[in-house]
Design goal:
hydrolase, 29 strands, globular, seven-stranded mixed β-sheet, binds 2-acetamido-2-deoxy-beta-D-glucopyranose, binds fe (ii) ion, acid phosphatase activity, signal, MPP_PAP, Purple acid phosphatase
Length: about 475
Amino acid sequence: MPISIKLGIAGRLFTAALACRTLAATVPTGRLFIQSTSPEVPLYVYTPIPESGLEPRNIHLSFGDNETSVVVTWSTRNDTQSQVQLMSVQPPNATEKLYNGSSTIFVDSGTKKATQYVHRVTLPDLGWGGLFKYRCGSQATGWSDWFEFRTPKRGFSPRLAMFGDMGMVNAQSLPRLMQDASAGMYDAILHVGDFAYDMQEQDGATGDQFMQMIQPIAARLPYMTCVGNHEFMYNFSHYKNRFTMPKGFGGDGESMFYSFDLGPAHIIGISTEFYFFVEYGVDQLKSQYDWLQADLERASKNRAARPWIIIMGHRPMYCSNDDGDDCTFGALFMREGFLARWYPLEPLLQKYGVDLALWAHEHTYERMWPVTRLEVRNGSWAEPYSEPRGTVHVVTGSAGCRERHDTFGSPMYYSAFRSTDYGYTRMQIFNSTHLSLEQVSDDQQGRIIDRITIVQHNHGPFP
Ligand SMILES: *[C@@H]1O[C@H](CO)[C@@H](O)[C@H](O)[C@H]1NC(C)=O
Ligand SMILES: *[C@@H]1O[C@H](CO)[C@@H](O)[C@H](O)[C@H]1NC(C)=O
Ligand SMILES: *[C@@H]1O[C@H](CO)[C@@H](O)[C@H](O)[C@H]1NC(C)=O
Ligand SMILES: *[C@@H]1O[C@H](CO)[C@@H](O)[C@H](O)[C@H]1NC(C)=O
Ligand SMILES: *[C@@H]1O[C@H](CO)[C@@H](O)[C@H](O)[C@H]1NC(C)=O
Ligand SMILES: *[C@@H]1O[C@H](CO)[C@@H](O)[C@H](O)[C@H]1NC(C)=O
Ligand SMILES: *[C@@H]1O[C@H](CO)[C@@H](O)[C@H](O)[C@H]1NC(C)=O
Ligand SMILES: [Fe+2]
């Protein structure tokens, strides 16, 4: 298995953890039918990518530098112009507006050196509470289908769906997520690392197929991402080239670390992978850490406007799975830094009172009691979490992939709820004091198996 020899210094410590995580499966090239566990959820029928070379594919949205700006990203095989036609449906406006953008050439590093052009068009300042339709492509080479999206209403309470570890094969949560999305249940999606399994396979065709599979959701809702270990090949080139995360608060400009404001929250995406794939450069640990500290400093001064600070990254700081070293040495690196020493993240979570930390990587769902520096804090041991004095950590990596489920060891003292069911997490940030999470089980026909509200009137540093 090539992964084990590609892991580098830190990675070699964790080879055992990864070796058992691969299950051979080939990606079907034809139509793919994904059946939900519930009869009322429509069958997802995936139709392969158009191969004309000019036709837009892998269309997805992300937030621009503010909540009323959207970036459309897509790809073509051939070099075409990058244009978006936008029409306002609500309020109605029959005149479409043309936006120009730009493209970058992306060459996969596999033997075929498969080439594609990734197009990005920013639709800035669309205003609150609008309903739009758009298509992308170009006047000269043709357009995609039309897709609708909304901008949030002023003063909205953001609703998000979040999950990690979703693959092309066995994407268990996808049919229900599609149904939720078409019912208008969300303002955005958070995909917390590990896509496609793996995007660079078949000279990148697996990545193209995955992005096409997710398009019905991602072309209608901002699809906000962070990087996982499965994106490690070629210095994370597939991840960096395919996504367009916001740059308004700085970051690396390649979607590896960045942040954005959403309603009453400031949301940060980081690369936990810098701590493990150190052969790509230890300097990245420092640049991410320095940026994160500055971003948290700025966000903590803006807490009156955006009281919730939420961080997402792929590998957990806390978990109780028994599938190797992820929840022992891996989590230690996440809390205490590379080799338990350099650029430790948990002191930052404590100093700036990060309210919620979202992780994945373990193919399970686990909610912790509010915990800081291995200590379960006040405001715990009951629903709701009332005025917690520690970060609430949640691991949600069970959307389904070819590696299937992980298993748990004995619960840790910080484990509050655990499930090995396939599923995903819904979050609603009601206002400055109330945020709720619920876990949807795909194994149990969409039943909510866990629900927690966090009530916090005193956002700020933890003791
Ligand atoms: C919002 O973000 C867009 C880019 O995404 C930028 O062009 C625009 O100037 C920003 N607007 C404000 C009011 O900051
Ligand atoms: C796309 O590019 C390829 C390779 O350069 C070329 O052979 C082909 O004719 C192009 N297709 C179209 C439709 O322009
Ligand atoms: C709506 O119509 C006006 C002209 O009446 C135009 O200037 C504007 O760009 C249009 N907006 C959109 C989003 O189509
Ligand atoms: C977009 O690009 C086209 C083709 O290059 C050009 O004709 C048009 O004026 C541009 N439109 C805008 C709004 O920049
Ligand atoms: C990997 O990518 C980062 C950021 O693009 C760069 O700084 C680093 O030098 C690269 N590492 C290698 C080994 O190419
Ligand atoms: C927890 O609560 C108790 C009693 O309410 C209080 O005495 C103690 O100082 C609190 N501890 C922390 C860490 O906030
Ligand atoms: C915040 O939202 C919660 C849950 O909907 C609600 O009970 C509470 O009254 C709200 N608080 C304020 C200040 O609006
Ligand atoms: Fe992972």
